[in-house]
Structures are given as structure tokens and as C-alpha cells.
Amino acid sequence: MTPERFRDVVSLYQGLRIAVVGDFCLDRYLEIDPDRAEVSIETGLPVYNVVNVRAQPGGAGTVLNNLAALGVGRIEVVGFRGADGEGYELQRELELYPSVSTEHLLTAHDRRTFTYCKPLVVRPGAIPVELNRLDSKNWTPTPKLLELRLVESLRAVAARCHAIVVLEQVDAAETGVVTRGLLEAIDALTDEHPRLLFLADSRRGLRDWPGVGLKMNAAELAAMLDRPSVETPDDAKRAAGELARGSGRPVFVTLAEHGIVAAGPEGEVVHVPALPVRGPIDVVGAGDSVTANLTAALAAGASLREAVELAVVASSVVVHQVGTTGVATVDDLASLLDRIPAA
After folding, report:
1. Residue 203 DSSP class
2. CATH top-level class for 3-339?
3. What one-character DSSP code corresponds to residue 321?
4. What average pLDDT does this structure show over 185-201?
5. How far apart are CA 51 and CA 209, in angstroms?
6. Domain locations in the chain?
7. Is residue 275 within 8 Å of residue 312, measured between CB atoms?
């Protein structure tokens, strides 16, 4: 992608309206000062003294963070939070972005706010060290009334958006936003709005999802096609091409240090290698930065290869942000774009 073409594409981001539908989480970081270590008088166990607490949207919120960093003009939230302190924090963090609408972030009194609590040992001049994470999740099925309200919200934003990202973050089926009822609604919307871009990602895999764009890793691709593994970029190109032709929708496969493979329904298949590592890395959030950049670029009219190039650069930016779930700005992308090898 030339610098001129890059500027043409990203200049359109401010005119985009993109919805993010899925499991919004709160990422809460507890920064621990090891020099303030104590021992509990009551239990005799070590005490970790927290000297700073910071929070940011996680899960589907990480996709949103990246869309906001790119300057997308309007971002619609479709999801739920609990009527708890974590839910208040999550909503407050989302509303710090002027471009974000939380009209459809529903408050559910019978659900908890999905929270990742991440204790970090922080030493001056050293890379933060994450201790055992403390997660708060919902383990019972999403109530039917809440599911119906989410479907109504999805249909409302679909009527006014250029693209919709759907992200499933939960481990237990039917306990989050992306229920069978919501998938049925997406299936109907793909017929009603055939030009509307949908891009889906699920940590539980995308088998039996409606006809939408699919983003996954190599292991998830192999599982979808009932193969033992997808070992190389060439394997991924063949498998993704097969899946895209069969579904009639684009398929994107992240391959860690081997970059990203993409396949279009008309037979186009591209592979863009990852950029070299430039220091310590933290892969948390890299996949969500890929999802955000693919969606924004495609919604702005980028080609399949152009969108993948931007996603590869974004992931390289994010993995070098250690101790946080990072984002990539347009300026970040511009600074590394010339490192992408020519097609």
C-alpha cells in the first residue's frame, strides 16, 4: 500500500459508523509494588500492596478501543453489563470516547459484569509481570428477555451502520451476548442488508455461524474443517480459500509469527507476513486489533490485501505494548507501513 493510498483509506474512517456486538468486559489492572511487600499478621500469608488501579474496556471493548484509536466517526455498542461497580466502571470507560454510543449497552440486574482482574508486579525499568488473573463471569444461560432486548438493539444499529463486528468472548455457550437467538437474528440481517459488512470472531469457534465474514486463528480453522492442524501459510491459504468459497464470505486467519492469510469468496487469496519482532512482546489484544483494522479498512473500501496489510501492521504495534491491552493509531500504522513487503 502506497502512502497516498493509505491516506485515502484512513481519511474515510471519520465518516464510518461501526457497531461492536458482543461480550464487553472490564480489564482491571492492579499494579503491585514489590518493595512494599508485607506479611499478614492474621494469616501469615504474603500481602501484595496495590499502588495503582487502572481499568479499560476489554473483550469486545478491545475491538472498540482500536476502532476509536483509528478515528472511526461513530461506534455503536451492543452488549450488556451488570448493575454492579464493575459495570459502572466499564460504562464510564466506554463513555470517555466521544465517538462511542452506549445507548445499547444494556444494564442487567441478573447478570454480572464480565471482568478480568489482572495483578501486575511493577518494578521501575522492568517489564511488568502478571500474576494469576481473577475472572468474574456468568455461568448460567443469558435470560430470554435480555436476549430479546439484545436482538432489538442489533436490528436498530444494523439499519444505520456500515459494518458490524461480532465478538464472542465467553467460554460457556449461551452465557453471553452471542446466543443462538442472536445468531438467528444476524442470519436474517444478512439477507435484509446484503451489502452490510459483518465480521465475526469467537473464542469458542465459528462452526455453524451464519454467512458472515470470519476471523480466526490456525487452530480454529483446522477445527472448522475437521483437520488435525494447519501448519504453514500455504496450508492456511488452501484451507481458507476452501472455506471462503463454500461460505460466500471472506475468511481471515491469523498465523502468529507467520502473519495473516485472507481469502475472498471469488477465489482471491493473500498472505502478508508478520513484521519482525523489535523487542519484548505481549500478545494480549493483538487479535482484536486485527479485527478492528480489517473492519475499518474494508468498510472504507480497501481491497482484501490492503486490509490485511493494515491489520498486520496494527498487530505488530500492539504486541510491543507490554503490560496493557494495547491499540494502534493511524500514526502508528503510518510509521511501520513501509516495512510490509511488496506483493
Report:
1. T
2. alpha beta
3. S
4. 95
5. 44
6. 3-339
7. yes
